[in-house]
Write a structure and sequence with these properties.
The complex is a heterodimer of chains A (about 450) and B (about 500). By secondary structure, chain A is α/β, with parallel strands linked by helices. Chain A has 15 helices and 12 strands.
């Protein structure tokens, strides 16, 4: 606790202007993604703004990556129920992932707070592309749908949703979209800039620098109206009736009281009104799309219907048709594993027949002691906490190596686990279970 | 000339005493955190990012440079001394580095790694300074067909790493490929082999596999051996640095590693794995004594260590010139840049030259700091080998479990870590090499995805791999690497050839 306080005091002294009583002693932010992505960025910007303006005294960010946010969502719903000091970042991509991964937990299971930011999508071609306008592109697409490759981010994400919506709007079955999913923004962008695909879809922010440098040409932007200061026609004004934004929102755990919900909503609302937040939006090129309360709930419901519809038209909640079968490679790998495994076992079998077997049971003792330590670690790391479980793991491991000095080992065990806990969980804010000793440090 | 002036301005900033202090703090922190298994460069930079929030942009950028290079360097120490590479960049280093450490030449291995990193980092930063835009343009000509061909070339390195038995080596490779199948198919979004467990949807984390196979596997294997041969030979330790012979054998691998690492770092393809292993393969092929590889050949440490640091500088090329993050670390750096209102992209060099050139200058400074920091420490670190085994392995397991758990705060990962460790121990008992499994897990999915992307773009025409010049060249090179020694030997001796990978490459320098 003292550690945490010291850290908070340092941050407050360094960065915060004098401010009224903080609304939260602690407000934990969960980014259901790995460091570097949009949700992580959102959480880290919120962290900065909330700290600098002292809306909350401490603001740890936790990353719970996996399966486009659905892992984080499932954990949030089960582990944080009723907790009034934690919120999670979510958004359109999570909504889509819930459909494609058939997640049993949905956004209906959390307490909605507010939509905070949005980013429009752009359809671009490299400046050397033969497509001068959206019309030319749509014509070519209608003539030979499969010959047009659409490059964008991961399957089932905002980029593919837009490809599906556009195709649907111009009267081509979305299943005929030859969508090439790239993992991560970098890969998709290099394929688009390098002209490896016919056309690219990505967030406006990712492409803004390229648009300004005129290395790419915007065929259309997914906003309702032209954005000020950006020379890009909308899809709608060119006769393709599609609007889409990659919105991001904040949700609270299920089971919190209406008062608590009000309290969190107020804090978020206070945050989005701050000049620090505005400056951050500017820096990251996010749009202020603050929407809270019942209006936000209606918005999510409408989006869910639309996303579900287009994903099923794209065939993303069932089997998809791709030109190269998705099952040939796994079959090859499994056959290879089986064949080489069999061959390895056969050669080993002939070898061990020549050598005497090693059956002395007592020699397994070190491994058995080690295994005991591992089992204790697995059993108790979450209930008793990292420090105690790791100390046990250390001590048993030391015993396995035939130590006749149990007391020395125990001292080292406690020293190593306490110091690594302090360093990683306290100083670096990694996520380690505190367990029984939660109040001690 | 303009570049030089701008760079001089950057240096003027970077060399102010306060800024040197930040550079030192950055490299120290980066190295210290990067040393720990599981905490790779991406996580290190993400963890240390908040530390820089309260600094002015220039100090913060100088610190980034230090943290970034420090984190890239940190991993080699544990690989060499404990056979516990914490991330993929230092697996290749572990093979011969740890063998050297066991023979008491740990200090020499650490020294060649430190100097190699310095040489590679400096040369690569020079290349970054002067030809970043041109290189980025070349990188854009790489599409799925080219990347597929590159992974095929990388797979040929496996032939070098198969170990004593081809069958067992291939088994290990297929084990890795099979593990790589688990998770969402990137191209369709459908789950494969995830057995309904949501945590498996993103596949098996490479970091878990690496820590499990090496750090945990080593601990269990040592415990297993402990019960068997009690007279474990204690190597004679020699804490002096590199001798004349080792210098002579190191300098060419440093340069070749740089030449391989930098251009491949520019490409977004699997991070540092491909450059480090290609460098390892090249060194073994060019060596007069390829039989020493795997048993403490210093070239096998010098080359890959240079390659991974050069690749780290290469990553900055597409990031700074195009705003393209080509690795997880780059994505985190991109966030850091945006923190200061810096939007990497084609206009960055003209929009904020002060910050860019300070960053580049601080990379040079960070490199020097790393060398200054690590050369004297090499002998000290190497004394880790003197820590009593019970305490050493206890510490390794605690840190391995910490790294694995904190990755996703997931019990499944922790359980998987120990299961992989047990499998690794069994593999070592039966003399199955570990490295092909890691390469399979990393390269398998990359290779499959790029193949299918290329086929989808070409509407199912397989000729795409040979009609693209770069792709065809890589494939030819792969064939040459596999068959070259075989054919050459047959031509020279006109006799039968016994093993493929034991033959030295004919063209020596």
């Amino acid at each position: 606790m003292r550690w945490r306080l010291t850290l908070a005091v340092v941050l407050v002294v360094v960065a915060a202007p004098a401010f009224a009583q903080p609304a939260f002693d602690q407000l934990r932010l969960i980014a259901p993604a790995a460091p570097g992505g949009g949700w992580d960025q959102t959480a880290r910007v919120m962290q900065q703004v909330l700290l600098r303006t002292a809306i909350a005294r401490t603001v740890p960010v936790e990353n719970v990556p996996g399966a486009a946010g659905t892992i984080g969502l499932a954990r949030f719903v089960s582990a944080e129920r009723g907790n009034r000091e934690v919120v999670m970042v979510s958004g359109l991509i999570m909504l889509a992932a819930i459909v494609t991964h058939q997640s049993p937990v949905t956004l209906h299971d959390v307490t909605p707070i507010a939509r905070i930011t949005g980013e429009y999508e752009v359809i671009v071609v490299p400046s050397a592309s033969p497509f001068r306008s959206l019309q030319e592109f749509i014509q070519a697409f209608k003539a030979h749908p499969e010959s047009i490759s659409w490059g964008g981010g991961s399957a089932g994400g905002t980029d593919q949703i837009l490809a599906g919506l556009v195709s649907d709007a111009v009267g081509v079955a979305p299943t005929r979209v030859n969508y090439i999913a790239f993992s991560g923004g970098g890969e998709a962008m290099s394929a688009i800039l390098g002209g490896q695909v016919s056309v690219g879809i990505n967030g406006l922010a990712e492409f803004q620098a390229q648009i300004e440098a005129r290395t790419v040409r915007v065929l259309g932007i997914s906003s309702a109206e032209r954005l000020p200061g950006l020379d890009a026609p909308t899809l709608r004004e060119q006769g393709v009736d599609v609007e889409l934004e990659n919105w991001r929102s904040v949700v609270a755990p299920p089971g919190i009281s209406p008062d608590d919900r009000e309290h969190v909503t107020k804090a978020i609302e206070a945050m989005v009104r701050l000049p620090e937040w505005r400056a951050a939006l500017e820096r990251y090129r996010w749009l202020d799309r603050y929407l809270a309360g019942a209006a936000f709930e209606r918005f999510v419901t409408a989006e869910e219907v639309r996303v579900r519809g287009i994903l099923s038209k794209l065939g993303l909640n069932g089997a998809t048709t791709t030109i190269v079968s998705a099952s040939a490679y796994p079959a090859f790998v499994l056959a290879g594993l089986f064949a080489t495994g069999l061959a390895a076992v056969l050669t080993m079998w002939t070898r061990t027949r020549r050598e005497p077997a090693d059956n002395d049971r007592s020699r397994w003792q070190p491994v058995a002691v080690l295994a005991a330590g591992v089992i204790l670690d697995l059993a108790f790391i979450e209930s008793l906490g990292f420090v105690l479980a790791s100390a046990a793991l250390f001590w048993f491991t030391a015993r396995a190596f035939d130590s006749r000095r149990p007391v020395r080992d125990a001292l080292f065990a406690i020293g190593v686990s306490v110091s690594s806990y302090l360093l990683f969980a306290r100083a670096l804010q990694l996520q380690l279970p505190a367990g029984l000793l939660a109040g001690w440090f | 000339m303009e570049t030089l002036d701008a760079l001089a301005g950057g240096f003027a900033n970077a060399l102010m005493p306060a800024h040197l202090g930040w550079a030192l703090a950055g490299t120290t922190l980066g190295t210290a955190v990067g040393v720990l298994p599981g905490i790779g460069p991406a996580l290190t930079v993400a963890l240390l990012l908040p530390v820089t929030f309260s600094l002015d942009p220039i100090s913060a950028f100088i610190m980034f440079g230090g943290i970034y290079y420090g984190a890239m360097y940190g991993g080699s120490t544990t690989s060499i001394l404990l056979n516990s590479p914490g991330e993929t960049a230092s697996i290749a280093t572990a093979i011969d580095g740890h063998a050297m450490a066991r023979q008491g030449r740990g200090t020499a291995a650490l020294t060649t790694a430190a100097i190699g990193s310095f040489v590679a980092g400096t040369l690569a930063t020079l290349a970054l300074t002067f030809c970043a835009p041109a290189l980025a343009a070349v990188a854009l000509r790489f599409g799925p067909a080219e990347y597929f061909a590159l992974t095929v070339l990388a797979f040929t390195t496996v032939s070098v790493l198969l170990g004593t038995s081809v069958v067992r080596g291939l088994f290990s490779l297929f084990l890795g490929l099979a593990l790589g199948l688990v998770g969402i198919d990137q191209l369709t979004g459908n789950a494969r082999f995830s057995f309904g467990i949501p945590q498996l949807l993103d596949g098996i984390d490479v970091v878990i596999l690496v820590i499990g196979l090496f750090a945990v596997g080593e601990t269990i294997f040592q415990a297993w051996r402990h019960g068997r041969d009690d007279t474990s030979a204690v190597a004679l330790h020699d804490f002096t640095g590199m001798n004349r012979e080792e210098w002579r054998r190191s300098w060419k691998p440093w340069l070749r590693g740089t030449a391989i690492g930098f251009p491949l770092g520019v490409l977004p393809c699997g991070g540092p794995v491909i450059p480090t292993f290609l460098s390892y393969m090249v060194e073994r092929r060019l060596s007069d004594t390829p039989e020493q590889f795997g048993h403490g050949a210093i070239e096998g440490v010098a080359g890959p260590e240079a390659a991974n640091n050069a690749a780290a500088a290469g990553v900055l090329v597409p990031l700074l010139t195009l705003g393209l993050p080509s690795s997880a670390t780059a994505a985190v750096l991109l966030t850091a840049f945006q923190q200061y209102g810096l939007q990497p992209g084609p206009l960055l060099f003209s929009a904020r030259p002060d910050l860019v050139w300070t960053l580049i200058a601080s990379l040079y400074v960070g490199n020097v700091m790393l060398l200054v920091l690590n050369l004297p420490l090499a002998g000290l670190w190497a004394r880790v080998m003197l820590v009593p085994k019970p305490l050493l392995f206890g510490g390794i397991l605690v840190l391995a479990s910490l790294g694995a758990y904190s990755l996703n705060a997931s019990m499944l990962d922790l359980g998987l870590l120990y299961v992989v460790g047990a499998i690794a121990c069994a593999m070592r008992v039966y003399d199955v090499p570990l490295v092909p499994a890691v390469l399979g897990l990393i390269l398998g999915p990359l290779s499959e995805q790029h193949f299918r992307r290329a086929m989808a773009i070409s509407e199912g025409n397989p000729l795409v791999f040979v009609t693209h010049g770069i792709s065809a060249a890589f494939l030819l090179l792969a064939v040459a690497v596999l068959l070259g020694p075989f054919l050459f030997n047959r031509w020279r001796t006109a006799g039968p050839v016994t093993t493929l990978d034991r033959e030295p490459e004919p063209q020596r320098e």
